[in-house]
Every structure is written in C-alpha cells, then in structure tokens.
Records
---
Amino acid sequence: MNTMSTPFRALRLIALLLYILSFAPHHHHSISTTTAAIAAHDTMFAGQSLTINQTLVSRNGKFELGFFTPGNSKKYYIGIWFKQVAAIQKKKTVVWVANRNNPIATDDSFSSEFKLLENGGLVLLILVSSSNIPVWSTNSTTSRAMNDSSVEVVLGDDANLVISSSSNRRRSVIWQSFDHPTNAFLPGLKLGYNNVTKKGSKLTSWRNSEDPSDGIYSFEWWADRSFNIIWNNSYKFYTSGVWNGRFFGSVPEMNVGHGLMSSFEFTSKEDGSYEFTYFLSNKSLPLNTFLDTSGQMKSIVWSTEARDWTIIWSKPLRRCQVYGVCGAFAVCSENNICQCLSGFTQRYPKDWGFLDYSGGCVRKTSLQCSNGDSFTKMSNIRLPDQISTSANALVVDIAKKCELACLQNCSCKAYAYATNSSSSSTSSSSSSSAVVFGVCYGMQIY
Ligand SMILES: *[C@@H]1O[C@H](CO)[C@@H](O)[C@H](O)[C@H]1NC(C)=O
Ligand SMILES: *[C@@H]1O[C@H](CO)[C@@H](O)[C@H](O)[C@H]1NC(C)=O
Ligand SMILES: *[C@@H]1O[C@H](CO)[C@@H](O)[C@H](O)[C@H]1NC(C)=O
Ligand SMILES: *[C@@H]1O[C@H](CO)[C@@H](O)[C@H](O)[C@H]1NC(C)=O
Ligand SMILES: *[C@@H]1O[C@H](CO)[C@@H](O)[C@H](O)[C@H]1NC(C)=O
Ligand SMILES: *[C@@H]1O[C@H](CO)[C@@H](O)[C@H](O)[C@H]1NC(C)=O
Ligand SMILES: *[C@@H]1O[C@H](CO)[C@@H](O)[C@H](O)[C@H]1NC(C)=O
Ligand SMILES: *[C@@H]1O[C@H](CO)[C@@H](O)[C@H](O)[C@H]1NC(C)=O
C-alpha cells in the first residue's frame, strides 16, 4: 500500500493540478467579497453564513449541509445528508446533526443563520427582538487574534465539516464534525478509546424518526477494545467482543470478504489508546453505518437498481435482541415487533407511529392489590439476563410460592417461573423464578 506505482503517482499529480486550477478563481472571488450570504459551495469564509434555503455541497457532490426538518416535524436542524439520494428519494438521509438537542421553531427559522465567526466559531443564531441569540455553537476559537480573516469551514468529500485557519501558509484544524459524531459511523470517521482521558467514543441514536435528539441507545467504545450497545446509559445488551488483531471477537464476518468496505484499520498507541476506522472500495458509493432508533447498529448501502437503501449488516441481528425495544410491559416478536401484555395499552401511541416503542405500555385499569387481582399466564417468554439474575430472583420448588411472594407485596407487578427440565435429575428438579418489581423490560416471545 505504501509503494505507489508510477502511473498512479502521475495521475495524482494531474488531479492536484486540476484542483488548483479550478479552485483558484473561487478563492480570489471569496477573499474580495464582503457579502454575508453565499451560494452553493463547499466552503464558507469568516463572516459568511447560510440562511434557510442555502446549503454547502461537498466538492464530489456526495454530501450537502443545510437546514432540514425531519419527516413532518416543524422543527429545524442543521444537518449533513447524502445529496443525490435526497434528490431521488425526496427524503434526507441525515448523517450528522449540529443542534440535535436545540431545535429551531418554524417561526424562528426565517431569521436564523448558520454563521462562521471571525474568531473561529461556527454558530447557529436566531433573531430575537433584533439581537442574534446563539442556539448552538462549536465553541471553537483560533489560536490567533479574535478577528482572523483566514478562518474557513469546508464540507469534505467524506462529510467531515472542518473549520481551519492559516498562519505562515500552514492550515490547521480548529474543529471538525468527525470529532463530534451524532449517530453515524461514516467511512473514514475514527472511533476508539483514549486511555489518557479514559474517554471512549460514543454515538447516540435519534429519539425517533422525526426527532434527532439523544435517544435511549448508545454505541460506546470501551478500554478493552470492544464496542458495545447500551440501553439508557445503564444496561449493556450487545458487545462486539474484543479486537483480536483481525476482527472483533463476535464479528467474525469482518475477516471474510467485505467487498464494499475496502479495509478496516485498527491503530493502537503505546499508552493503551486505540482508534478504529474503515474505508470504502468505491468512494462515490453512498454507504453509512449508524445506530438506528431500533437500537441496532446498521450498515446501509444505496442500491441504484432498487432506488432505496439496502441493509448489509446489523448488530444485534434481530430486533428483539435489543433490550427495551418495546418499553415496559410489552413483548417483542420478530413478526409483529411490539405488543402490549394483555390488560395493557400503548403509553404513547403517536410515538409507536414513528417506530419508537420505548414508551412501552400502561395498565388499562389500575390494580386493586390483593383484592381480587389475578395473574395472566404467558408462555414461551424469554426474560433478559438482568432480571433473571437480579436480587429479586428466588429459588422455589413450586410455582405457587412464586405467586404468593408476588401477591404479598403491592409493588410486585409480575413473576416469571422457569422449571429446570434437566431430564437426568430425578430427585429434586430445581426451579427458579423471578419476581418483578416496578417495570418489566426486555421480554421476548420465542
Ligand atoms: C425556501 O424555499 C421554499 C421552497 O422552495 C420557499 O417556499 C421559501 O419561500 C423559501 N424561503 C426563503 C426564506 O427564501
Ligand atoms: C458550547 O458551550 C456551551 C456552554 O458551555 C455548551 O452548553 C454547549 O454544549 C457547547 N457546544 C458544544 C457543541 O459542545
Ligand atoms: C473583522 O474585520 C473586518 C475587516 O477588517 C471587519 O469588517 C469586521 O467587522 C471585523 N469583525 C469583528 C468581529 O471585529
Ligand atoms: C433512564 O434512566 C434515567 C436515570 O438514570 C431514569 O430516570 C429513566 O426513568 C430511565 N428511563 C427509562 C425508560 O427507564
Ligand atoms: C491504560 O492506562 C492505565 C493507567 O491509567 C494502564 O495501567 C493500562 O495498562 C493502560 N492500558 C493499556 C491497554 O495499555
Ligand atoms: C461506484 O459507485 C457509483 C455510485 O453508486 C457508481 O455509479 C459507479 O459505477 C461505481 N464505480 C465502480 C467502479 O463500481
Ligand atoms: C415490597 O418490595 C419492595 C421492592 O423490593 C420493597 O422495597 C418493599 O419493602 C416490599 N414491601 C413489603 C411490604 O414487603
Ligand atoms: C438447571 O440445572 C443445571 C444443571 O443441573 C444448572 O447448571 C442450572 O443452573 C439450572 N438452572 C436453573 C434455572 O435452576
């Protein structure tokens, strides 16, 4: 890989020349102009801004940055999406969101600006009683004077939004969106663990398909060289296994042909820090790997024939393997996704419409508690390990004891009972039961 053949080197040189020739006029023009707004380009210079219908487009035409509203939402966000795909689908596949937790209301959208300041900061401003209020900011600054005309921001061919400034003809990066990913692990983006700061990379799912704010699932990189999917910052239900030099232990498919992804690159440092990334074999192919609102990490690739995205990889493989996907008091099945337990109803039916089931179900009528309540039996239910091994688990000889334990305490909501059908044991077949207090998550029908 390090030895570049001569013809290829020549080609690189030609490409470099073309680049300089075609972009020199653009540069001159921008330096001499003082207008605040700009047309579609990949670059914004100090003092320039985007307003509602203006965008930046990466030089290869693959990505576009600007204001967007997800689905039928009335809220505005600054994001980056696949440009050609959006033109075909009439729908944006967003790979990065700036103000995910600070949306702009429709009324404020007309006066809002996404502006590159002379101090190296990139801010999203709204106009409130004739003063500009920042809604979101990169909080970045140049190392030089506060009024630095060399500051610029470029939307790269890989979707990385980079703010830089130059001194002594050398450009240095001040801030880049690849250091602040939202839910997407794009090709070329580096994730990993810093063993000095003890911080690992983290992606967070969207709340639902119309709300990019922080959702309940996160994708985290740990010190042991694994990536993990976590529910509500507390329960790890998926782990990749540790990096063994060629692949992550539970992701052996990385070791065999992976046509669309040309290489996986794991770089480790002496201090125990590491970074992981992957590249595309065909750079123009739209491909994204992201943490879906379903709690699954998915790789999708654009199919020109189908004119739609195709899922080429997902972890966990099955939706019901995702913890809490159906919220409380609901069961997951692959055919029918989420269903409320009998006697329960959807807590937020509107969210279910956006494929966000995490609100779960609530009882239709409240319990009387020890006054005529009875249990409904459900078979073939698998409980998450967390419940089966919790402190509330009892070892009993008959199911009735489990029921009694639950009835005796008003905060008990359900119990689960499993017989150990180990055929060889003739004397005392042991049984276990889990008594569930509070809410009950992560049940699956099998
Ligand atoms: C933005 O574009 C939309 C659709 O083309 C148009 O209806 C709207 O008036 C434009 N808004 C502004 C502020 O130019
Ligand atoms: C910028 O700083 C503000 C105030 O400290 C903080 O709330 C905000 O999250 C920061 N923005 C980013 C993108 O980190
Ligand atoms: C920075 O300098 C330019 C030109 O010298 C001037 O127009 C602009 O107002 C200055 N900006 C700030 C924030 O001082
Ligand atoms: C997630 O955790 C927070 C605090 O740790 C808790 O208040 C919240 O109820 C949890 N969410 C769910 C859906 O259980
Ligand atoms: C990470 O840092 C700790 C000290 O903070 C060190 O003990 C440990 O060996 C480092 N990990 C690796 C894998 O080098
Ligand atoms: C690369 O991907 C683009 C976009 O899908 C496609 O048009 C082109 O034919 C591909 N090139 C090769 C060499 O496969
Ligand atoms: C019922 O169970 C809850 C949760 O385990 C416990 O805190 C409480 O003390 C119990 N109440 C009684 C009356 O046993
Ligand atoms: C079932 O029996 C096996 C072997 O006797 C034991 O290892 C396991 O823990 C038992 N499971 C339960 C749920 O009691």
---
Amino acid sequence: MNKQRPIMHAIVLTALVMIPVLLIAAPSPTGKPGSIERGRYVVKISGCNDCHTPAYAQRDGQVPERDWLTGDGTGWSGPWGTTYASNLRLKLAALSEAQWLQLARTAQYRPPMPWFNLRAMSDGDLRAVYRYVRHLGPAGVAAPAYVPPGGAVATAVVRFPGPPPAQ
Ligand code: HEC
C-alpha cells in the first residue's frame, strides 16, 4: 500500500501542473491579434454579415462562408436615398492594408452602415478583418449603385420611417 503512495503523488502533481499548461495552449476561439482567425471572429460578432452577406439575417446566419461579405441587392431607403451594402470581397481586394486602416478611421458612410463601429475597432482588429477578407478572396459582383433621394429604385428595399428624431 505504502509503496504506491509516491506514485499517486506523482500522478496528482503531474495533473496539477498539466491542467493549466493545457488550458494556456488550447486554441482561443477569438484568435490571435491580427490573425485570419481573429478576423473571422470579429466579422462574425460585429454584424458585418447581417447586411453585407445575402440572406444572412433571414437564414439565421446559415450561409456558407464562401459567400460571406459579397454584398447585397436589398436597398435601404430613408431620407438619405437608397443605399446597398457593398461587396467587401471586391472592395478590400482593391485596397492595401494601410489604405483600409486609413479608410476605416476616416470614412463616414450613409445609413444604415455603422461606420462609427469601424472607428471604434482597434488597429489589430481592423487588420485582422482585412486579412480575413483578403484570405476569402474576391468573389461575387458589385452591389447596386447608391440612389439619391427621389431617384428611381429598381430593387426590393427596407424602408426607414423618416428623419431621425430630434435629440
Ligand atoms: C445595418 C447594415 C450594415 C452593417 C451591420 C454593416 N454595414 Fe457596411 N455598409 C452598409 C451599407 C448600406 C453600405 C453602403 C453605404 C453608402 O452607400 O454610403 C455599407 C458600406 C460599407 C463600406 C464601404 C464600401 C465601399 O464600397 O466603399 C465598408 C468598408 C463597410 N460597409 C464595412 C462594413 C464592416 C467591416 C461591417 C462590420 C463591422 C459592416 N460594414 C457592417 C450596411 C451595413
């Protein structure tokens, strides 16, 4: 009996040391900063697909990744006219990483694009988004062009109720 004690101690000690080591080594679901994995995670949780991927919201997110961010032909109509969520696969294919960072920090798009969310992202997350979208590669066709207020709209639209309420 006594002879087995040291062995038991060794097993318990090894387990105590290995558990934290394994936990640290386990791949993080959020990806390493600036990585493609991180980009996929940020795109997924920050809602880009809801507008920039055809039928993503209607299909509860069940759209193959190869179709993500290829733009959408449903218009968003309001006092600003009608906007279409752009094809980001084509857009980012035409930009360098530095140009993307500059754009994300300065561009102010029409509603309902949450450009302010891009500005709130860290450089690391913006770089990760860029690398992820470039990793997916260019695909699809350009979304319909913006239509100014009063112009003829040839697509289905989501209509916003009117000007924003006064603050
Ligand atoms: C609520 C819908 C919506 C969401 C969510 C959204 N976008 Fe957009 N996005 C749009 C629309 C609509 C436009 C076109 C705006 C315009 O015409 O000014 C646009 C335009 C853009 C553009 C400009 C592209 C160009 O052709 O110049 C970029 C870049 C962009 N979105 C990136 C993103 C990213 C990255 C996310 C996720 C963090 C995101 N968008 C989330 C609707 C959305």
